[in-house]
């Protein structure tokens, strides 16, 4: 992802500080915004994280930071997908019982 996002050579420590700031609802630096915006949810960040040994779950932190960047700091634009809820309902119908469907849909 670092090559695709143009972040090769970026400081990983600064990225984790930026992620923590975003997760707290504070604005993050442009490199961190690029990182959370381009996340493909591969999980490769977990093994690559320089703070993994300290117990940091990079994927969880990226997800939290992205939600804060969308909802709180408004640094990441909301992607409007008109097919999202119909697809969600289709998936729910394949996974839930009739009773659960009645409660949830």
Q: How is this fold's topology laid out?
A:
Elements: H1 12-23, H2 30-37, H3 44-48, H4 58-71, H5 84-95, H6 98-104
> Which range does the strand content fall in?
under 5%
Low-confidence stretches: none
Number of helices: 6
State the helical fraction. 55-70%
The succession of helices and strands, N to C, reads: HHHHHH
Helix/strand class: mainly alpha
Distance between the termini: 37 Å
Identify the overall geometry.
Answer: elongated
Report the average pLDDT across residues: 85
Q: What's the total number of strands?
A: 0
Largest sheet: none
Calculate Rg over CA atoms.
Answer: 17 Å
Can you describe this structure in just a few lines?
Helix content is 55%, strand content 0%. The chain has helices at 12-23, 30-37, 44-48, 58-71, 84-95, 98-104. Helix 1 crosses helix 2, helix 1 crosses helix 4 (58-71) and helix 2 (30-37) crosses helix 4.
Q: Mind explaining what this structure looks like?
A:
This protein has 105 residues and is mainly α. The protein has a domain of 68 residues. Helix content is 55%, strand content 0%. The chain is built from six helices and no strands. α2 packs across α4. The longest helix is centred in the middle third of the chain and has 14 residues. The protein is elongated. The N and C termini lie far apart (37 Å). The mean pLDDT is 85.
